[in-house]
């Protein structure tokens, strides 16, 4: 099992991160996600994608920090980075509407994935955080994504404090639409179908343009992260 569940709602493909208890990302989920997104881009019957998490508490808790194979740090770090990088690239490359339905906590890499969607719908109980600093890690990629979307002041606040941003604040900052939990999926599907109703060529072209500076910022942040790991700091 990859931990990624698929089902269709008409022309909308719904992808659910499903790894109890925290829907954390591992290499299997990363590979499955990239494969599904690639096929969805090529499948004319898929008009849009909604990404959500299983349960009502966690959208995605970020990278799985467990190391069941006891891999050395010099292998594990780059492996995790490659998994996240592949998923972020898959989102940036996807030309069709992509909506994140954030059902709970979006933490670390989970927050990055949600924020890269074309639209974000968050349940009232949801929250976003980039808490890597609390485990002694920088988050250059998180900084790059949030700075591009909301400015460096908010990015610095969240990254340097590690605090969680509640759904109401996320909405007030223009980063998401906040809805009651029971209306989350219906609202996400409605949003996906609305965007899918736009001219697909124009939508894809606009999306490509929007992602030009975002891609470059993520590329620089990824290189900085690799250099930081290489220094062992």
List keywords for this structure.
6-stranded mixed β-sheet; 4-stranded mixed β-sheet; 2-enoyl-CoA Hydratase, Chain A, domain 1; alpha/beta; 233 residues
Could you characterize what this model shows?
- There is one protein chain.
- The protein is α/β, with parallel strands linked by helices and 233 residues long.
- The protein has one domain (4-183): 2-enoyl-CoA Hydratase, Chain A, domain 1, CATH 3.90.226.
- Helix content is 50%, strand content 18%.
- It contains eight helices and ten strands.
- The protein has helices at residues 27-42, 73-93, 109-115, 140-150, 152-161, 167-172, 184-196, 200-231, and strands at residues 4-9, 12-17, 48-53, 58-60, 98-102, 105-107, 119-123, 127-129, 164-166, 177-179.
- The strands form two sheets. A six-stranded mixed beta sheet has the order 1-2-3-5-7-10, with helices on both faces. A four-stranded mixed beta sheet has the order 4-6-8-9.
- Strand 2 (12-17), helix 1 (27-42) and strand 3 form a beta-alpha-beta unit.
- Helix 2 (73-93) packs antiparallel against helix 8 (200-231) and helix 4 (140-150) packs antiparallel against helix 8.
- The chain is globular, with a radius of gyration of 17 Å.
- The N and C termini lie far apart (35 Å).
- The model has no long low-confidence stretch (mean pLDDT 94).
